Amino acid sequence: MTYIPEALRRLVAERAGDRCEYCQMHEDDTFFTHEVDHIYAEKHDGPTVEWNLCLACAECNRNKGSDICSLDPETGNVVALFHPRRDRWADHFLRVDTGVIEPLTAHGRVTARLLRMNRLDLVADRARLIALRPYPGEES
Protein backbone atom coordinates (compact mmCIF):
# COMPACT_ATOMS: atom_id res chain seq x y z
CA MET A 1 0.00 0.00 0.00
CA THR A 2 1.44 3.32 -1.08
CA TYR A 3 1.69 6.34 1.19
CA ILE A 4 -0.64 9.12 0.04
CA PRO A 5 0.64 12.58 1.01
CA GLU A 6 -1.68 14.64 3.21
CA ALA A 7 -2.03 17.40 0.58
CA LEU A 8 -3.24 14.82 -1.95
CA ARG A 9 -5.64 13.30 0.60
CA ARG A 10 -7.09 16.77 1.27
CA LEU A 11 -7.46 17.46 -2.45
CA VAL A 12 -9.36 14.19 -2.97
CA ALA A 13 -11.65 14.81 0.03
CA GLU A 14 -12.36 18.42 -0.92
CA ARG A 15 -13.06 17.52 -4.53
CA ALA A 16 -15.57 14.91 -3.32
CA GLY A 17 -17.20 17.26 -0.83
CA ASP A 18 -16.38 14.71 1.88
CA ARG A 19 -18.82 12.27 0.21
CA CYS A 20 -18.19 8.72 -0.92
CA GLU A 21 -17.90 9.00 -4.67
CA TYR A 22 -19.62 5.63 -5.08
CA CYS A 23 -22.67 5.78 -2.77
CA GLN A 24 -22.65 9.55 -2.04
CA MET A 25 -22.75 9.06 1.75
CA HIS A 26 -21.24 12.05 3.58
CA GLU A 27 -18.39 11.25 5.93
CA ASP A 28 -20.24 12.97 8.80
CA ASP A 29 -22.97 10.32 8.48
CA THR A 30 -20.67 7.31 8.85
CA PHE A 31 -18.96 5.65 11.77
CA PHE A 32 -15.61 5.24 10.00
CA THR A 33 -13.75 7.98 8.19
CA HIS A 34 -13.76 7.83 4.41
CA GLU A 35 -10.70 6.45 2.66
CA VAL A 36 -8.75 7.43 -0.44
CA ASP A 37 -9.33 4.68 -3.00
CA HIS A 38 -7.26 3.84 -6.06
CA ILE A 39 -9.83 3.58 -8.86
CA TYR A 40 -7.38 1.35 -10.72
CA ALA A 41 -5.73 -0.57 -7.90
CA GLU A 42 -2.00 -0.60 -7.40
CA LYS A 43 -1.98 -4.33 -8.21
CA HIS A 44 -3.22 -3.33 -11.69
CA ASP A 45 -0.43 -0.72 -11.91
CA GLY A 46 -2.80 2.11 -11.01
CA PRO A 47 -0.69 5.12 -10.02
CA THR A 48 -1.09 7.18 -6.86
CA VAL A 49 -2.03 10.36 -8.68
CA GLU A 50 -5.03 12.70 -8.51
CA TRP A 51 -6.85 11.32 -11.57
CA ASN A 52 -6.73 7.75 -10.21
CA LEU A 53 -7.92 8.53 -6.68
CA CYS A 54 -11.39 8.98 -5.23
CA LEU A 55 -12.98 9.21 -1.80
CA ALA A 56 -14.80 6.08 -0.68
CA CYS A 57 -16.65 5.13 2.47
CA ALA A 58 -15.32 2.07 4.27
CA GLU A 59 -18.27 -0.07 3.05
CA CYS A 60 -17.79 0.75 -0.63
CA ASN A 61 -14.01 0.57 -0.47
CA ARG A 62 -13.99 -2.85 1.23
CA ASN A 63 -16.49 -4.28 -1.23
CA LYS A 64 -14.73 -2.81 -4.28
CA GLY A 65 -11.29 -4.02 -3.31
CA SER A 66 -9.06 -4.10 -6.37
CA ASP A 67 -11.91 -4.86 -8.78
CA ILE A 68 -12.27 -2.76 -11.92
CA CYS A 69 -15.10 -4.68 -13.60
CA SER A 70 -17.73 -7.33 -13.00
CA LEU A 71 -20.46 -9.29 -14.76
CA ASP A 72 -23.63 -7.35 -15.56
CA PRO A 73 -26.44 -9.18 -13.73
CA GLU A 74 -28.82 -8.50 -16.65
CA THR A 75 -26.65 -9.46 -19.64
CA GLY A 76 -23.78 -11.51 -18.24
CA ASN A 77 -21.33 -9.22 -20.07
CA VAL A 78 -18.11 -8.01 -18.45
CA VAL A 79 -18.62 -4.31 -17.66
CA ALA A 80 -16.32 -1.74 -16.07
CA LEU A 81 -17.31 -0.36 -12.68
CA PHE A 82 -18.51 3.23 -12.30
CA HIS A 83 -15.44 5.48 -12.64
CA PRO A 84 -15.68 8.57 -10.38
CA ARG A 85 -13.19 10.61 -12.44
CA ARG A 86 -14.73 9.83 -15.80
CA ASP A 87 -18.43 9.20 -15.10
CA ARG A 88 -21.16 11.44 -13.72
CA TRP A 89 -23.00 9.79 -10.79
CA ALA A 90 -26.47 10.93 -11.86
CA ASP A 91 -25.98 9.33 -15.30
CA HIS A 92 -25.57 5.89 -13.71
CA PHE A 93 -27.58 5.98 -10.47
CA LEU A 94 -30.84 7.33 -9.09
CA ARG A 95 -31.37 7.72 -5.38
CA VAL A 96 -34.94 6.72 -4.54
CA ASP A 97 -36.86 8.10 -1.53
CA THR A 98 -36.89 4.63 0.03
CA GLY A 99 -33.09 4.79 0.38
CA VAL A 100 -32.41 2.47 -2.54
CA ILE A 101 -29.75 3.49 -5.06
CA GLU A 102 -31.28 2.48 -8.39
CA PRO A 103 -28.73 1.66 -11.10
CA LEU A 104 -29.59 3.20 -14.48
CA THR A 105 -26.87 1.65 -16.66
CA ALA A 106 -24.74 -1.47 -16.93
CA HIS A 107 -21.93 0.41 -15.13
CA GLY A 108 -24.40 1.28 -12.39
CA ARG A 109 -25.69 -2.29 -12.13
CA VAL A 110 -22.27 -3.90 -11.75
CA THR A 111 -21.15 -1.23 -9.28
CA ALA A 112 -24.31 -1.38 -7.14
CA ARG A 113 -24.14 -5.18 -7.02
CA LEU A 114 -20.40 -5.52 -6.37
CA LEU A 115 -20.28 -2.73 -3.77
CA ARG A 116 -23.49 -4.08 -2.18
CA MET A 117 -24.96 -0.56 -2.19
CA ASN A 118 -28.49 -1.80 -1.49
CA ARG A 119 -27.88 -4.01 1.52
CA LEU A 120 -30.91 -3.70 3.80
CA ASP A 121 -29.00 -1.97 6.59
CA LEU A 122 -27.51 0.62 4.20
CA VAL A 123 -30.90 1.30 2.58
CA ALA A 124 -32.41 1.79 6.05
CA ASP A 125 -29.61 4.20 7.00
CA ARG A 126 -30.15 6.22 3.83
CA ALA A 127 -33.92 6.27 4.35
CA ARG A 128 -33.43 7.68 7.87
CA LEU A 129 -31.07 10.35 6.52
CA ILE A 130 -33.50 11.23 3.71
CA ALA A 131 -36.22 11.78 6.30
CA LEU A 132 -33.96 14.32 8.04
CA ARG A 133 -32.59 16.23 5.02
CA PRO A 134 -31.86 15.93 1.32
CA TYR A 135 -29.59 13.00 0.60
CA PRO A 136 -26.22 13.79 -0.97
CA GLY A 137 -26.23 13.34 -4.71
CA GLU A 138 -29.68 14.83 -5.25
CA GLU A 139 -28.11 18.02 -6.55
CA SER A 140 -25.79 16.09 -8.90
TrEMBL record:
Database matches in SMART domains: HNHc
Name the record gives this protein: HNH endonuclease
PANTHER family assigned to the protein according to its UniProt record, in alphabetical order: SLL1193 PROTEIN (PTHR33877), TYPE IV METHYL-DIRECTED RESTRICTION ENZYME ECOKMCRA (PTHR33877:SF1)
Annotated Pfam families: HNH
UniProt keywords, alphabetically: Endonuclease, Hydrolase, Nuclease
Listed InterPro entries: HNH, HNH_nuc, NA-targeting_endonuclease
UniProt source species: Candidatus Chloroploca mongolica
GO MF annotation terms: endonuclease activity
Domain HNH nuclease: 7-62
